[in-house]
Write a structure and sequence with these properties.
Layout lengths: L5 E7 L5 E6 L10 H28 L8 E10 L2 E9 L5 E7 L6 H23 L11
Antiparallel strand pairs: 1-2, 1-5, 3-4, 4-5
Length: about 140
């Protein structure tokens, strides 16, 4: 059975705590590789902070006019001897939406970037809907 191109998705709080994690691996047992995927996601948080600092400095110097919440590829990763990329999106509240995607999920990198940009933006909007719902008491497995 072929593995999906998106290995996992996560929502990370402003303090670095995992708010939501979902693996799409079809391994047996289901949670066998979740820890390694979570470690890969947490290792990319340093890259997120570095990019946020770089953007803040560019905005102060007037080199950039606005902040794009889509961060693109944060870092390459190696998982189960396959190349993967970690993509990121940061909301204004510093909530981070991260995804680990197999390298070459699309034929062209530009297509992959457009798909991931849209997907991460939609996931952020879903998180906002859930977080602002007064009757919802949690996002699930973390």
């Amino acid at each position: 059975m072929e593995e999906p191109p998106v290995l996992c998705l996560a929502i990370v709080g402003r303090d670095g705590g995992l708010l939501f994690f979902r693996s799409f691996r079809r391994s047996v047992p289901p949670d066998a590789d979740d820890l390694e995927l979570q470690l890969l996601l947490h290792s990319s948080l340093d890259q997120v902070e570095a990019q946020l600092q770089h953007v803040a400095q560019a905005l102060q110097k007037g080199e950039a006019k606005s902040f794009d919440p889509y961060l693109g590829i944060l870092s390459p990763a190696l998982f189960d001897a396959e190349d993967c990329n970690i993509y990121g999106y940061v909301a204004a509240t510093r909530i981070k939406v991260l995804a680990i995607v197999r390298d070459g999920a699309c034929q062209k990198r530009r297509d992959e970037e457009a798909i991931l940009r849209s997907m991460l933006r939609q996931l952020n909007l879903l998180y906002i809907d859930a977080a602002t719902n007064p009757f919802y008491n949690g996002l699930g497995k973390a």
